[in-house]
């Protein structure tokens, strides 16, 4: 199966799937995802696995109406992983590191799709909720790159992805 | 907080052998392996074969790449300019050289150096400008940056599958007015990066990567290791 076919199968996690996605599975996909481009091999990322028994505690830090999608992900997704990136003092380095960590998350999205697993990607900002940051043990010199939810696609479930049109000019 | 106890700084040179025993969890192993192969093979390519590239082909790849990013963002506030025709590349090349020659360090470079650089830029088979429109708040702008990075990466992998390599240019010139006005950006548009794209003849060597487990923290009690459905 080509990369293109896999990419066309990319979906968000299936909230109705009962099949578990394990820590080992996510680690194994991550070991492929770490081959993301990054400047000077800084490998600017860190992974925080949110175990099942920590979900409620983390969910309590989120407001029901303002962050309902993020809350649903943390409460319901078969697996939940946070990707954090360091924020170096140099602004350009910080931008490059953030972009590199985003490439890693996108690798994970593609690898998950190839495994029949959907992934949702949320990107909360530190200033939006400090309590949430503390609960995830995000360090002062770090930022979120993604709060990710995983779950198998089930056969009965077909999500309709809205078409995202970006403007492309050809010169 | 638990940390998995593996020796610190253990580097995996070839994780495909290290993890082959874990690759059996899914019936779609073959698809994963194919995707993983492309992800692992991809390199930054800075020197290109002379062959021309079709702008339309790049546009199709970009369009598919844009569909592959699920982070919430505003797609209509992202824009790409693909310069693949001689005329288009000349326009972009001139704007890039204007930015270099009026900026910092390069202002003091001899004309010969600038000329050599201009020739190198002119030989790049295709240049893509990645542009975002400035949105009202920092959070939205950061999400646009994140989404744009992910789109560019998906595009990079799709291009790699077709033997096309690229390099991201995020040098300070991407913010230089000579460049942004030269390629006709509106006042509220920002150039995120330039991509230099072409077929590659030589593939640079791979560098080692740190295993994910070295950067792994668990919050809460570790999950049971069952669940191989």
Automatic annotation (TrEMBL), chain A:
One Gene Ontology term of the molecular function aspect: oxidoreductase activity
Native species: Paenibacillus montaniterrae
Cross-referenced Pfam families: Nitroreductase (PF00881)
SUPFAM superfamilies, A to Z: FMN-dependent nitroreductase-like
Protein name in the entry: NAD(P)H nitroreductase YfhC
Entry-linked Gene3D superfamilies: NADH Oxidase (3.40.109.10)
InterPro entries in alphabetical order: NAD(P)H_nitroreductase, Nitroreductase, Nitroreductase-like
Location of the Nitroreductase domain: 15-152
From TrEMBL, chain B:
Sequence ranges of Low complexity compositional bias: 15-26
UniProt-annotated stretches for the region Disordered: 1-26, 206-229
Residue stretches spanning the membrane: none
One GO MF term: oxidoreductase activity
Residues in Nitroreductase domain copies: 39-198
Pfam families in UniProt: Nitroreductase (PF00881)
Domain of life: Bacteria
Name under which the protein is recorded: Nitroreductase
